[in-house]
Amino acid sequence: MLKSRIEQELNKQLNKEFFSAYLYMSMAAYFQSVDLLGFANWITVQAKEEMLHAEKIYNFIHERNGKVVLEQLEKPQTEWDSPLAAFENSLSHEIFITDSINELVNIALEEKDHATNIFLQWFVTEQVEEESNATEIIRKIKLMKDAPGGMFLLDKELATRTLVVPAV
Ligand code: FEO
Predict the structure, then answer these.
(1) Nearest to 53 by CA among 29, 24, 33, 30
(2) Which residue minimizes the CA distance to atom 1 of ligand 1?
(3) Does the CA dihedral 26-167-163-134 come out positive or negative?
(4) Where are the domains of the chain?
């Protein structure tokens, strides 16, 4: 049985994961609007990953006999100055999510909720990859943006990403 403080905090994280999906779909729409369809593909896959993160938390709350409460989602940003600005936004958002997961781990430990702590370790590891992915793309955009055809090549590379559903 979940303590009510943990239940509330997990529901807040659930909202953040859904918002992440919403933000990334908004970025995908931006990339579509500037004809970077590979970028749009990459970030759409990211949005789907965020939905899986949300589903993981949703299922865990139920497994622990808690109640899922879905709240309103904030309106995401809809325009960015450049693909670089969009990915810098993605990285800062992932850092925000990492901080949020770390705080949730602290709360689970304070409440001596070891099951939630173990559950959250998957997210701790995942956030390392999430920040690393965004950082790598920022690095590539900076390297390629002034090269002839650089963004075209990067767009082709990002078009190859497919959704890998993690083992539950
Ligand atoms: Fe679910 Fe990108 O963190």
Answers:
(1) 24
(2) 50
(3) positive
(4) 4-158
Å from CA of 49 to ligand 1 middle: 7
In this prediction, residue 168 carries a pLDDT of 59
On the question of pLDDT at 28 being above 80, the answer is yes
Question: Could you tell me the distance, in angstroms and rounded to a whole number, from the CA of residue 121 to the centre of ligand 1?
Answer: 13
Torsion sign across C-alpha atoms 42, 48, 50, 56: negative
Reported CATH class of domain 4-158: mainly alpha
pLDDT for residue 120 is more than 90: yes
97 token code pair: 């999510």
* Cβ(97) – ligand 1 distance below 6 Å: yes
Going from the Cα of 110 to the center of ligand 1, the distance in angstroms, rounded, reads: 24
Residue 53 CA: nearest ligand 1 atom is: 1
Atom of ligand 1 at shortest distance to CA of 127? 3
Q: Residue 103 C-alpha to ligand 1 middle, in angstroms?
A: 15
Q: What is the CA radius of gyration of the chain?
A: 17
53-111 per-position pLDDT tens digit: 999 999 999 999 999 999 999 999 999 999 999 999 999 999 999 999 999 999 999 99
* pTM to 2 decimal places: 0.96
What does the pLDDT read at residue 166?
Answer: 75
